[in-house]
Design a protein that fits this description.
The chain is 43% helix and 22% strand. The protein has 98 residues and is of the alpha/beta class. Strands 1-2-3-4 form a four-stranded mixed β-sheet. It is globular, with a radius of gyration of 14 Å.
Length: 98
């Protein structure tokens, strides 16, 4: 698939619950992941397809903010998004990530 910006070259799969807790653990309770910076980092590889995996407890405001940054949203049924993220990675491997 191509876009006006060229072919999609990278997929960015973000496990938001794990990223949230890892950031807090590493940098303190007030720290939050910078999802916009993560998206921009991915864009260094060219046009990126960014997918944020959120758990069922994620707020609509958080989901809307991610979407506004350019992320597609995946909402697995289970609280742990790991399996859904892995399944998406496998489904995208070896083919166009459009």
């Amino acid at each position: 698939m191509s876009t006006q910006r060229g072919p999609i070259r990278a997929a960015l799969l973000v496990d938001t619950p794990n990223l949230y807790y890892t950031t807090k653990r590493a940098f303190g309770p007030a720290a939050r992941p910078d999802y916009s910076a993560i998206y921009e980092l991915g864009r260094q590889f060219g046009h990126v397809r960014a997918i944020a995996f959120v758990n069922p407890g994620a707020s609509e405001a958080f989901i809307a903010a991610l979407h506004a940054m350019g992320y597609e949203i995946e909402r697995p049924v289970a609280d742990d998004v790991d399996y859904a993220l892995i399944a998406k990675a496998v489904s995208l491997s070896g083919r166009s990530i459009s």
